[in-house]
Write a structure and sequence with these properties.
With 461 residues, the protein is α/β, with parallel strands linked by helices. Helices cover 41% and strands 15% of the residues. The protein contains 16 helices and 15 strands. α6 packs across α12. The longest helix has 25 residues. It starts with a helix and ends in a 5-residue tail after the last helix. The mean pLDDT is 97. Bound molecules: pyridoxal-5'-phosphate. Pyridoxal-5'-phosphate (PLP) binds next to α6.
Length: 461
Amino acid sequence: MSLSNAAVRDIETVIHPYTNLDTFRTTGPMIIERGEGIYVFDNGGNKYIEGLAGLWCTSLGYNEKELMEAAAEQYRQIPFTHTFGGKSHERAAEAAERLKAIAPHAASKVLFCGSGSEANDQQVKLVWYYNNALGRTKKKKFISRIRGYHGVTVASASLTGLPANHRDFDLPMAGVIHTDCPHYYRYAEPGETEDEFTTRLAKNLEETIIREDPDTVAAFIAEPIMGAGGVVVPPAGYFEKIQAVLKKYDVYFIADEVICGFGRTGNMFGSETFNMKPDSISVAKALSSAYFPIAAVTVGEEMYQAMIEESRKIGIFGHGFTYTAHPVGAAIAAKTLEIYEKRNIVGHVRSVQPTFEARVARLADHPLVGHTRACGLIGAIELVANKSDKRAFDPAAGIGAAVVAAAQRNGLILRALAGDIVAFCPPLIITNEQVNEMFDAVEKALDEVEAHVTKEGLRAA
Ligand SMILES: Cc1ncc(COP(=O)(O)O)c(C=O)c1O
């Protein structure tokens, strides 16, 4: 295969995240040139449905004029001014007010940053700061979950519970403990009901806290639905049982809403869908519909008062990025949140969610599909070699990647996650008709890969 000039330039200059850097030198990049609604076009003019909304983020699609205009207007007014040392600009408060108004807990203030990783990093620092302010100097450990995804900075990658984010990076750092993943299909014991499964997980969490010493356990972080770890939708009752344990040991609860926030699960926040009562949330991605790298954490009144107390003691809140509450990002975030409200994005998701969920569920009949899951406009299929004993394919066979490649040939961009899981997470503006178009392509892709699996005898144990 001969590579285009653009591909060669890319190979020789750019390091690509989450890419096999060795094979990439032969395959080269897929270069996306432009977008329109839920579609993107590559540099060969081919059209694709963006079935993962980029990286679970382009909620309003690829040519939302109001967002472009909000950015242009802010650039014209002033492209940069900061929020250090008491300086500000009006867009910061506008975005913060809108976020506070819809947050799934009593948010007092908002601390902006640039990415989901930074948001979760800030969460770690704020919890440490808060507990120091309260004189609880030993209460510093974090509990997150196996297969959870919280980002890639030193602290947030430590919270992440995926091997590729730790291996040879000398992570996780000390003081981060990983507890069970609520993936019933994969981790339930034989004969265990969902209720027994979630009771066991809550019991394990309690035992972990006791073993570590409750006086040293500060916080627990969880995505409502695990995204990058495999689109794991927790069984009913899971978060209620987990939260009872957290409450008992005074453990601060952070909901990582970076994927689930802003309508994705059929409510404004995943916390509402799963009856979570967090002390704080991390948001990013759809906060600006990915039109600008902006993210945030919410801060409750108690935490805020402790931060004020620290300022009295130390003289300053010694944290912040050059681009904290960047005016263009804040203007876009404020406009994005305004659009969610005025166009009733949650109502729209609910109107297409039945088609989406039904089309995902229908894939369970396919010989390659061991499990399907969907909630709102996020879903996944888990591909297996044997449906009855759930035996996985040899990872080297790359069956998940083969389905993604076949989907791409059929005009649909998807993403394969570890464990031959293929994720679906289209822009929230998708219509019922487009959902059908998307899953027609998924079915074709599965049939093509099934033919390949049969021909090559890849099901052999
Ligand atoms: C739930 C969750 N938290 C945090 C992050 C990290 O966000 P970012 O890639 O913006 O640093 C992600 C990214 O996919 C995510 O899915």
